[in-house]
């Protein structure tokens, strides 16, 4: 994956920048590696700064509206200022750490609709507007995350959609200014539930798993949301039957409608 962006500094003949990622498939806690190459134009130019980061397009909800916003959630400066000579090539390798909370964009090799995460490159040249662009990456689930999602599929849940929302989930280890929700349609046996929203908030040792269950209204009651959360160790999740564990909670909420 690569992009090119022409800088029109000092008129025609400005420098261009190209970023190439060594591997676009990553996992939370991993590293995306690549190289930024700056190609000098027909005149010498002073580069004031070069940086790479990670950016996500998230949903922002207000009382009156809902809109998308690009949020850069990590950034690394690559070296200091320098002068790029006409026709010269300045190559800068980099390794960018993927935060443990980074949302998943791929499940079983399939892209999740609506997930937009990538590497940004910013090049600031004197008397020119910053050059920036987005190079998409594929974020695959950690083994512990995949075990939880596989349990939902084993129970008969069907994937509905996924989104990233600005805000914080109370009571979790969340540090990023946004979080991901992965939504599932329930099977018939949980007929009291409209849908289940699943969120992961991880660090290097453990992750919070948050379930938001949208309950259907009963004869004498309105619909409501029920929240459940638990912690899963990233290295010791193998010994639990997650399908049975989730079924116990889900059955309490959705095996029948709340008629009273």
Task: Give your account of this protein's structure.
The chain is mainly beta and 260 residues long. It folds into 2 domains: 2-139, Immunoglobulin-like (Sandwich), CATH 2.60.40.640; 143-254, no CATH class. Helices cover 10% and strands 50% of the residues. The chain is built from 2 helices and 18 strands. It has helices spanning 143-154, 242-254; strands at 2-6, 16-21, 25-26, 31-39, 45-61, 66-77, 82-84, 89-97, 106-107, 110-111, 117-125, 131-136, 138-139, 158-166, 178-185, 193-202, 206-215, 224-233. Strands 5, 6, 7, 11 and 12 form a 5-stranded antiparallel beta sheet that branches. A 5-stranded antiparallel beta sheet has the order 14-15-16-17-18. A hairpin with an 8-residue loop joins β17 (206-215) and β18.
Question: Quick one: biggest sheet?
Answer: 5 strands, antiparallel
- In CATH, the architecture of the largest domain is Sandwich
Number of helical stretches of at least 4 residues:
2
Q: In angstroms, what separates the terminal alpha carbons?
A: 57 Å
> Structural class, from secondary structure content?
mainly beta
Number of strands: 18
Order of helices and strands: EEEEEEEEEEEEEHEEEEEH
Strand content: over 45%
- Our count of domains comes out at 2
Helix fraction?
under 10%
Radius of gyration: 23 Å
CATH fold node name of the largest domain: Immunoglobulin-like
The general outline is elongated
Low-confidence stretches: 1-12, 217-223, 256-260
CATH class of the largest domain: Mainly Beta
Mean pLDDT: 87
């Amino acid at each position: 994956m690569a992009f090119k962006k022409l800088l029109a500094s000092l008129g025609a003949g400005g420098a261009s920048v190209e970023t190439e990622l060594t591997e676009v498939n990553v996992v939370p806690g991993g590293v995306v590696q690549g190289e930024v190459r700056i190609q000098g134009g027909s005149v010498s130019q002073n580069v004031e700064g070069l940086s790479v980061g990670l950016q996500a397009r998230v949903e922002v909800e207000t009382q009156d509206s809902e809109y998308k916003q690009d949020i850069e959630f990590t950034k690394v400066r690559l070296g200091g200022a320098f002068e790029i000579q006409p026709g010269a090539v300045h190559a800068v390798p980099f390794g960018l750490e993927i935060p443990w909370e980074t949302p998943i964009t791929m499940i079983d090799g399939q892209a999740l609709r609506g997930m937009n995460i990538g590497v940004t490159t910013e090049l600031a040249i004197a008397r020119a507007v910053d050059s920036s662009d987005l190079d998409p990456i594929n974020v695959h689930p950690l083994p512990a995350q995949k075990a939880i999602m596989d349990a939902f599929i084993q129970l008969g849940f069907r994937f509905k959609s996924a989104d990233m929302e600005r805000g914080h989930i109370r009571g979790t280890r969340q540090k990023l200014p946004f979080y991901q929700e992965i939504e599932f349609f329930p099977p018939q046996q949980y007929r009291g539930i409209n849908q289940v929203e699943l969120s992961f908030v991880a660090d290097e040792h453990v992750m919070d798993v948050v379930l938001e269950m949208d309950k259907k209204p009963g004869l004498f009651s309105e619909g409501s949301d029920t929240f459940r959360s638990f912690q899963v160790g990233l290295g010791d999740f193998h010994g639990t039957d997650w399908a049975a564990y989730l079924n116990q909670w889900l059955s309490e909420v959705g095996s029948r409608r709340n008629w009273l």
